[in-house]
Fold this protein.
Amino acid sequence: MTLKIDIDEGAGDAPYEQVRARIAEQARSGGLPVGYKLPTVRGLAESLGLAANTVAKAYRALEADGVIETRGRNGTFVAAAGDAAARAAATEARAFAERARRLGLSEADALAAVRDAVRAVYGDAG
């Protein structure tokens, strides 16, 4: 298994976001198994023709999302992201529901707001 990332210079997403999204997609789909050792920030940056700070920003976002974990000098690895991602989503959903209730929204209105947000982010495929 190897990490596959192509940077699309004409894409609307910034290069760091493309790196973050590709690694997250491959980790969540099983293309990169749990425990897979990712290239160093510098190594991946060189292979993609990007600045090291760009890859570092992507790695930080992935680590914050629980997709990858850094083990000090041992390197950066794909984490068991499913549980962490599900927990983070549940926490955010709960916070939204509490705020919607404080704002006086009905359950139907809160769910409609979530559906609209999901469609905006995922598009029609959501």
Notes: Helices lie at 15-29, 41-48, 52-64, 81-102, 107-122. The chain has five helices and three strands. The chain has a mean pLDDT of 89.
